[in-house]
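In response to reviewer comment 3 from the previous cycle, which asked for concrete evidence that the modeling workflow produces usable outputs, we include below a single protein chain processed end to end. The sequence was submitted unchanged, and the resulting structure tokens are shown without manual editing.
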Amino acid sequence: MRRLLIGGLALTVLVLIVGAAGLSWREPAFLVLPTERSSNVFFARASINGDGPFWLTVDTGATLTVLDPSAAHRLGLDVRDGAASAHVGVASEATRLATARGVTIRLGDAPPFSPAPVYVLPVRAAEEALGHRIDGILGADFLQRFVADFDYRHDVIRLFRPDRPPAMPAAPVFVGFRENVLTTTATVRLTDAEQVAARLLVDTGSSSGVSLNTPFVQHHRLEGRGGGGPGLRGFELSVAIGVNGVTARRVLPIAGVHVGGVDMDVPKIALSRDTIGLSASTDFDGILGAAVLSAFRVVIDFQHQRLWLER
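The workflow returned the following structure tokens.
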């Protein structure tokens, strides 16, 4: 059984899948993806079925590769409508999903990738917000075959052999990587010195900072923090743009976020009020996005469930 969840500006896709395609590897020990970066998000230039270029967000918060309907039409894919899902984006109603097969993606010198199936969903709604063309999403079903090095300082993504990770000066943070969902345990330090532990989705496809999901916000009664009651009026707001809508979220000042042995400079977090979609999930407590991750070199060893953060 599969369950598809798609988030906000991250355009995050979560689907429960098991296994990975075989990987044939030759020297050198790592590959460099052909990428550009805009609004803290990496975009990989790809050819698909010999056509291109197409631009795919490189998204650790996505467990499945996705194509926009316009890209599927350009490729002449046989797109099949699927069931409606209540776990998509920020809409107040279910969104119908579609799938396609017969797709082979090539990215620079990386081994060809043939996901089966790919989901076909309208992801171009975030192009203006992210400042880059978007033809789809490259998810953890591709990245899990490698040790992925997001080097924000040099605007490059390196893919290392799983048996030859890069030498890192710091100790790793042990993360959860179950059913292609990558999470880390973080400590959120509130301004009144209280600390709360939260499981955050590590999401390089989100241009935002840190947000907390509705069930977690309600459990810890965070909406009422800072005075003024639980409503939105009179508070700073952030906007989440999903594949099917827009939602406003209250912003709460905090003292910071701690992950492993690393203190992150996070002066505020967004509090979800969504009742449907990714930010209403109880599978994890919130999202750690690229606005925070981009202050580090982020290296992710999916197979051994390790993550390094290097300033």
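The first strand starts at residue 4 and ends at 6. We consider this sufficient to address the reviewer's concern, and the full set will be provided in the supplementary archive.
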